[in-house]
């Protein structure tokens, strides 16, 4: 059996690499690194399904959903975003996407905002919690007397610096996309491990980042989440976890932070353990019992020629027209229909971007060749 790890090459947030890092330990081995934002373009070396864990945030490129037919997904700790314009919103969960998700019901959701979205379109689901709660402690790492400040407000930073004698380490989850994308995955996961080791050794972590706070719970490091509920995007992602974390709004921290810092001992609530144990068992059981179905898969040559090649050209335009593109149909079974659909969508985009005439000519040539060689 083959296994694939979902990764996001051009992420600006190390939290995405942490999501891949945590999924990696559940896979017996890794045969493929599958790009998160191009999962529909994935083609294996042989005509077979590749087992993957679909934990994390989906999706910037809404035109890349559903996934490649060669992917056997396990939807666990999944967040479908309605933001960043490319997110999978209710209106984009059309009949093909719904049919696809229905094959893998129930969908394990990372948060209640995803549950609400799936409920609206009639997809069975449940709250699974986040896989980052299963990160394992490194027994070689010893506690030290420093505080990590991870992407918090400048005023909150100043409050901490003015009211503690402990060493302060300021860490950001924001990456230099250009430089980070050049690194191989072994190096990127070593960088993740370095960050997690700092969190484990810290006496306290104060952060606005979900994928700093949840790993800290798993690593046994006291953590305070600064969670600003009035921000809708933040609320959708963090609300469910504020209940199992020490948390304050930034405003509350500026009022009560000094008192918090003076506490002799900081501890975490233990409520997360139930979620951790459940999601860990779920993934282990899936990997142990998973079966793939290699019947009725399209021929690799057909899928590559009729879908992948023309779709790559369309993806170049997608970033120019993401807010104008509206999907009405998707179909991976009838590849001839898929060809005609994408041809239509491509010309809709080209009407708006005349400067892309060269790509139009190239794609026109490809489509003409396909039609002439039926």
Regarding CATH, which class of the domain at 136-271? Alpha Beta
Distance between the termini: 34 Å
CATH topology name of the domain at 136-271, in short, is: Rossmann fold
Averaged pLDDT: 85
Structural class: alpha/beta
- How many β strands by DSSP? 13
Helical stretch count?
13
Q: List segments where confidence is low: pLDDT < 50 over at least 5 consecutive residues.
A: 322-333
Proportion of strand residues: 5-15%
Fraction of residues in H or I helices:
40-55%
Q: What is the name of the CATH architecture of the domain at 136-271?
A: 3-Layer(aba) Sandwich
Largest β sheet strand count, sense and barrel closure: 5 strands, parallel
Q: Tell the overall outline.
A: elongated
User: How are helices and strands ordered from N to C?
Assistant: EHEEEEEHEHEEHEHHEHEHEHHHHH
